[in-house]
């Protein structure tokens, strides 16, 4: 288990309110870690997310070590733009499309049909894979969402079957379903093991399907490790 008291002291010293310095893991300390990761003071949304996440992180063993908790904060901070966006809007520029999907978009010209057309883009890049049916809106309906950007009909079906969580709840930013879905996914991909081995490249490949965002996740991990003991 992380040293909660020292973590609370570090958060307080950095001007992020963790609540009483009592060594007890809970929603307010979790919200302060989210706020610190995001680089802004906790608002109502972050406080609600902290309350929802705290017991789930504890049950999933994520607060057992600083490396596990910091990596989760780094991954989720990156995937949500600092806990601001919980549904992938797919409104990508040509340059972003070529960076994220280099095999699909090798020229600027190939991106033009999808600039400013997020639904069409989602159905093109996510259609006919990850459980999405060809010729449907599955790519759009099952685009990235939640704290770890769950993607694809197969993933959302797994969340519904295992937890009763829906894509609408995830895309809507409902904190309790998002927290449960995140920790369920973290367990299914055995993310704690990656963290324990220090295989952060392997974990990024597992989460992202590639290495997009690897450096940003690393930067965010280091930030959180600065306050977690």
Automatic annotation (TrEMBL):
Domain of life: Bacteria
UniProt-listed Gene3D superfamilies: 1.10.530.10
Record-linked SUPFAM superfamilies: Lysozyme-like (SSF53955)
PANTHER family on file: FAMILY PROTEIN, PUTATIVE-RELATED, GLYCOSYL HYDROLASE FAMILY 19 DOMAIN-CONTAINING PROTEIN HI_1415
The protein, known as: Chitinase
């Amino acid at each position: 288990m992380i040293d909660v008291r020292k973590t609370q002291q570090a958060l307080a010293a950095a001007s992020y309110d963790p609540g009483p310095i009592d060594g007890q893991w809970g929603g307010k300390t979790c919200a302060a870690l989210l706020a610190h990761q995001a680089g802004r003071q906790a608002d109502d949304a972050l406080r609600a997310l902290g309350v929802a996440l705290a017991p789930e992180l504890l049950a999933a063993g994520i607060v057992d070590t600083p490396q596990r908790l910091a990596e989760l904060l780094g991954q989720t901070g990156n995937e949500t733009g600092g806990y601001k966006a919980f549904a992938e809007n797919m409104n990508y520029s040509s340059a972003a499309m070529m960076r994220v999907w280099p095999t699909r978009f090798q020229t600027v010209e190939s991106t033009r049909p999808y600039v400013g057309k997020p639904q069409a883009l989602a159905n093109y890049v996510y259609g006919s894979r990850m459980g999405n049916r060809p010729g449907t809106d599955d790519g759009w309906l099952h685009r990235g969402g939640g704290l770890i950007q769950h993607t694809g009909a197969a993933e959302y079906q797994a969340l519904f079957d295992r937890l009763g969580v829906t894509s609408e709840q995830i895309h809507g930013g409902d904190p309790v379903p998002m927290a449960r879905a995140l920790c369920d996914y973290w367990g299914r991909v055995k993310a704690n093991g990656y963290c324990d081995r220090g295989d952060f490249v392997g974990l990024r490949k597992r989460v992202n399907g590639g290495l997009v965002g690897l450096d940003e996740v690393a930067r965010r991990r280091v930030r959180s490790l600065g306050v977690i003991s």
